[in-house]
Amino acid sequence: MRRPVDAFVYEPVIVGSLEDAFCATMLNPNIAAVIINEGFGLRSRHDAPVLRSITAAAGINDESDASALRLAQIIKRVRPELDLYMISNRDVEELAGNPEANVVRRIFYSVEELLELHLSILEGIQDRYDTPFFDNLKKYAQRPIGTFHALPIARGKSIFKSDWIRDMGEFYGPNLFLAESSATTGGLDSMLEPTGNIKKAQEKAARALGADRVFFVTNGTSTSNKMAVQALLAPGDIAIVDRNCHKSHHYGMVLAGAQPLYVEAFPMTEYSMYGAVPLKTIKQALLGAKADGRLDRVKMLDLTNCTFDGHIYNTCRVMEECLAIKPDLIFLWDEAWFGFARFSPFLRRRTGLGAANEIEAWMRDPKSVAAYEKQQAELGKNPSDEVLLKTRLIPDPRQIRLRVYQTNSTHKSMSAIRQGSMLSVKDVEFHTVEQQFKEAVFTHASTSPNQQLIASLDISRRQMELEGYGLVANAMEIAFAIRQAVNNNPLISKYFRVLSADAMVPAQYRQSGFTDYLAAGVNWVNTLKSLDEDEFCLDPTRMTLVCGMAGYDGTQFKGILANEYNIQVNKTSRNSVLLQSNINNTRSDVAHLVRVLAEIAGEVDRALAQGGANAKKTFEARVKSLMTDVPDLPNFSHFHPSFRGDAGSKTNEGDIRTGFYAAYDVAGCEHIRLNDPEIDRRLKAGPELVSANFVIPYPPGFPIMVPGQVITQETIDFMRKLDVKEIHGYDAKEGLKLVRTEALAKLGRPKPGAQPKLKAAS
Questions:
Q1: CA neighbor of 39 nearest in space, from 55, 19, 16
Q2: Alpha helices of 534-586 — where are they, by DSSP H?
Q3: Is 90 exceeded by the pLDDT of residue 695?
Q4: Could you read off the pLDDT of 535-580 as tens digits, one per residue?
Q5: Residue of 357, 309, 355 lying closest to 333 (CA atoms)
Q6: Is the dihedral angle over the CA atoms 178, 183, 187, 189 positive or is it negative?
């Protein structure tokens, strides 16, 4: 059927059984479409015990399971981006009307229309290949256009005719400037009110990500988070928030006037980092609000998935159990670092949208109601909170209002330009918040978005739909290669190691007993069991490399890698750096990293061998200070009563907005230096120390103080032991900024749900 006019060329891969088809789909990333012809068997002629274990887990056990429709459903579940076509000799009209056949793009009767099948395959690929905004931008750049708007750089004349900045044009090339415009007409579109190619591009992104709708954001995921918080929360609403989340969530609460109820992640004191928030802690917050009669005010659960260090929630279980307590709870999953996970069948189930789609399918299953009613009968009429905390709760599928929002830093895990972000929505009540969502977009989105950035979001979606599966699989393979090369090298492993899953996730959160991806005897069957059952898993692409054993703190080692070896890493902790593999990495990158680590380890080895006893003693003291004498991580204490509607309640939400603006009253604030004895006196005798602003040290990168928070000895001890140079919100010369006791008395206690009364600031 191949013709010269065809836009694409493809080759067939022919298999004869369901197991072979499943295996090919899993292992061959170049497969772009699947044609399923009836009349195949179940078993492969190859001996593949791991494959059989995986298919058995999917409920495929005997020959009766080897139906064309069943295979189509399995493949769509594993690789939802693929186009599926069915060829049947049976009653195709009846098959086409079967709701379960909606996973198939088109059904053909026998082989009567080979050309139509061929054209359908090409059309399906073209549909994924088309990038509405980028395609139009390329056409726009080739048109002769006179620009009489406020963007001198458009068309590049001011650049290429200049004697002084022509090098900028030579560096970037003419297309960058030909494609620039501040217009939204002439085939272009508006980011604020998209009706044309941006709207079409966002619809394709929604299909790719498994969402109902997607918003492109050009100011980074910080803006995506603030948009979602502002649109979904009103003054006085309570949001359960991971205290260690990105600062954009905290500032979003300030903007919305919402009251954060902070919950704590499990600590990893040895490495000066936090993990993720245990489900029991989240349920306690919800049940506490229910006992206080304020569950109706709890509108949102706001969590980071995966965390900076790679901790992934069991998103499905979290949402199910929370919905069992509050069926209309909104979920905001900040997946800034996890956008690629949609394109891995292993990790997809752990994303917010992946879990939302699983829950949606479960709600349609008649067995879901029976499961709920059975548990209710077992629990009885008034189960205690203790019982509810121990029980894996099942929600009532008839009461659930599924409302899930997911933010992704597309630039962090896909081929988008920096600050490219997507906000995905799966919300049955979106029609009730659509107008306020638009207002949030108007508030935060730039009226002059970068055209190249929008185009890169469009392009990144195209790439991930067509080759994302293989790229993500390669990124995971790269990560496994790094782990193996570092931890198995006799020299490197003396001073460096990549932490395994069991070192990053405490045993009580690994119910499957999973230890690590590269542990002896572990294969994808064990890994899938962990992904299905464990409360927390570790993202395989994120690797915590401990450098404290070599005598380097994280910031110091990061500088050495960048300045001396041209290796860039992202996050640091007191005694580690974070390595991240992505779709851009190659095995050559691994080789370079391993060579550098071997060289540094060799230098440390030689220095100890040649330095004598004193050098060894100094080195051991340095390692001890980094690996053993680490400061305890401070938990969030509580909001001062002046920022509480009901200081006697079980929950601990606070009016962070009033606390934030209290800092605007200069006379109502004071500064005390960190080492001033006055701090120690007031910690013992009072009056209480109340923070006037956010204090965020890097690392660890989360607020150890928020506006209105009472400062404790624990927090002061932590700050005094910090040896980092960058602490946002803290001026070492001035000291801690505190709200004066007299100002606290004037503020009084705001009523629940009331907007804080603020003075205008000029």
A1: 16
A2: 554-565
A3: yes
A4: 999 999 999 999 999 999 999 999 999 999 999 998 888 899 999 9
A5: 355
A6: positive
Token pair of 697 as six digits: 């040290």
The DSSP code for 548 is G
| CA 496 from centre of chain | 27
Distance, CA of 296 to CA of 238 (rounded, Å):
9
Given this model, what pLDDT does residue 96 score? 87
R_g (Cα) of the chain, nearest Å: 28
Measured CA to CA, the distance from residue 330 to residue 400 in angstroms comes to 11
Helix axes 221-232, 247-256, angle to 10 degrees: 30
Phi, psi angles (nearest 5°) of residue 514: -60, 140
Placement of tokens 């391993």 in the chain: 594
Alpha carbons 331 and 348: distance in angstroms, whole number? 17
What pLDDT is attached to residue 285?
A: 96
DSSP 8-state symbol, 275: -
238-242 and 213-217 as β-strands: parallel, antiparallel, unpaired?
unpaired
pLDDT at 645: 77
- Residue 83's φ and ψ, nearest 5 degrees, are -85, 130
- pLDDT tens sequence across 298-311: 999 999 999 999 99
Amino acid letter, residue 277 = V
Nearest to 318 by CA among 308, 329, 309, 310: 329
Token reading at 205: 């992104």
Q: What is the length of the chain?
A: 762
- Residues whose CB falls within 8 Å of the CB of residue 618, separated by 6 or more in sequence, listed in order: none
To the nearest 10 degrees (0 to 180), the angle between helices 49-57 and 524-533 is: 20
Contact (Cβ atoms closer than 8 angstroms) between residue 402 and residue 379: no
Tell whether the model's pLDDT for residue 139 goes beyond 50. Answer: yes
Angle at 147 between CA 145 and CA 153, to 5 degrees: 105
Q: What is the SS3 assignment for 185? A: coil
pLDDT in tens, 421-447: 999 999 999 999 999 999 999 999 988
> Between 644 and 599, whose confidence is greater?
599
Q: Take residue 412 and report the two structure tokens written for it.
A: 């962090």
At a CB cut-off of 8 Å and minimum separation 6, what does 564 contact? none
Mean pLDDT of the chain: 92
DSSP string, 709-762: BBP-HHHHHHHHH---SEEET-BTTTBEEEE-HHHHHHH--PPTTPPPP-----
- 446 closest CA partner among 221, 255, 218: 218
The pTM for the full model equals: 0.94
Distance CA 356, CA 329 (A): 13
Whether the pLDDT of residue 458 is over 70: the answer is: yes
The pLDDT of residue 406 is above 80: yes
Say how many C-beta atoms besides its own lie within 10 A of residue 61's C-beta: 11
Reduce the secondary structure of 209-262 to three states and give it as a string. Answer: HCCCEEEEECCCHHHHHHHHHHHHCCCCCEEEEECCCCHHHHHHHHHHCCEEEE
pLDDT at residue 753 greater than cutoff 60: no
Q: Looking at residue 700, what is its pLDDT?
A: 66
In the predicted model, what is the mean pLDDT of residues 180-207? Answer: 89
Classify each residue of 159-180 as buried b or exposed e, where b means 16 or more C-beta atoms within 10 Å of its C-beta. beeeeeeeeebeeeeeebbbbb
Give whole-number Cα distances, 476 to 28, 128, 473, 484, 527, in Å.
15, 24, 5, 12, 13
Report d(CA 505, CA 628) in Å as an integer. 19
Coil, helix or strand at residue 406: strand
Which helix or strand (DSSP H or E) is residue 298 part of? strand 298-304
CA distance 419 to 220: 4
CA atoms within a 13 Å half-sphere pointing along the CA-CB vector of 23: 20
